[in-house]
Amino acid sequence: MLAFRPEDLTLPNGHFIGGAYVQGAPEMEVRAPSTGQVLATVPRADAEVVDRAVAAARAALKSSGWGGLRPRERTAALHRWADLIEAEATTLARLEAVCSSRPVSHAATGDVTITAEQIRFFAEFADKEGGDLVPTGDGSFGFIASEPYGVIGAIAPWNFPISMAGWKLAPALAAGNAVVLKPSEMTPFTALYMAELSVRAGIPAGLVNVVLGDGAVTGTAITGHPGIDKVSFTGSTRAGAAIMENIARTGIKPMTLELGGKSPMVVFDDADVELTAQCLENGILPNAGQFCVAGSRIIVQRGIADALAARLADRFARHRPAATWEDEAGFSPIISEGQLARIDGIVRDAAANGGEILCGGARFDHEGSFYRPTLIGGVTAQNPAVTEEIFGPVATFQTFDSEDEAMALAAHPTYGLCAGLFTRDLSRALRLTRRLEAGTVWVNRYGRSRDHILPTGGWKASGLGKDLGREAFAANRRTKSVLIDL
Description:
Blueprint: E1 15-17, E2 20-22, E3 26-31, E4 38-43, H1 47-64, H2 71-87, H3 89-99, H4 104-123, E5 132-134, E6 140-148, E7 151-155, H5 161-174, E8 178-182, H6 189-200, E9 208-210, H7 215-223, E10 230-234, H8 237-250, E11 255-258, E12 264-267, H9 273-284, E13 297-301, H10 302-317, H11 337-352, E14 356-359, E15 374-377, H12 384-387, E16 394-400, H13 403-410, E17 415-416, E18 418-422, H14 426-435, E19 440-443, E20 459-460, E21 463-464, H15 469-474, E22 477-485
Parallel strand pairs: 7-8, 7-10, 8-9, 10-11, 12-13, 12-18, 13-16, 15-16, 18-19
Antiparallel strand pairs: 1-2, 3-4, 5-6, 6-22, 11-21, 14-15, 17-20
Helix pairs in contact: 2-4, 2-6, 3-4, 3-6, 4-5, 7-8, 9-10
């Protein structure tokens, strides 16, 4: 049984620096979105605490020689860490569920196991990706050396806390770096326990440091710290812009930013209506729509629009909320009351600007922060529900006649993270994947698979660089060109 009572959990608390917990004044409340109850009060890392974590990371790199070890030694340590994560899946799933929007059953069988998979995936790059010998004249010898950066400053979001921490930690460590990680102040517990497990796995203490705090204080201290060699961030476009500004002001350094999205799902009238309805539902409602690649703009060819809208409204209406710690998974809560109010405000603005609420449009009559799955029709390209990233269980429904009209509706002036395309016409699919302005395009499906080799990252204001894939490993190493005269 995975079900639990929040009051029975022992929650890790404090910053994890140099392999040990460091306490601080309790400043930030962590709440359970399923009920609104306060679970714990945690410290906020200021510049001094961040400086201590960076110093611990640098000292650990030097004393352990982590970046210069035989690569298979790094691989073996990371595999042991993945083993421990799987062995502690129940504990991690409960720590994930108690303060996040992730149902405990989904966390145990999905998030935790996927995180272990990702660690193993990147572990295997350690001895398989290196420099290159390059062609030069007979009188010289040229090569491109690949080296770790040193200390990576990583900031992870609240929507998938453990797997997003894995996105940051796994490639950085496999590439020979140390990490100072800031999880969201709303979902800190699994990152802390993962850091404990890393030391138990034999990863030298100080290579994984976790500091708790918010973006304004702790995030700013990390991204602007002169001892941080590279920054990796997943979150909103607005926060990403603030990070870029802070880095430019405090000293240039490379960064990977996976930011917001307003992704279209484009459906042609040759698509299977029932199968497509299921894909569209899965593209917007998991985690109550709180994921950056959510397909929040449904764009349908007019011939099947009415039938598809009816099926979607029926599917949306079936969902029922449940606390994240219950055994039977229900519809996820919104992470906070503030975020729920923002979602509801955009839905109300959408209706005031001519949108038709086809289903949903209000919070559930249930304890906690739960919002009904919502479908909005009759919207123009200027409607707030079309232009703004809502980060909730809300999708707009638009229609088109021609391919050109579909592509015009799919284009967004700001975002270019993902897109979905549903058609049985292979030529059309290949033709339109080239026209869609997105870092990822899914055809006749929507959402990431467990093929970790596929990189993810956005175009335009949806980000810089890539997570996952060999690109993520390469992004945690820097190159040096060497030319030797013989």
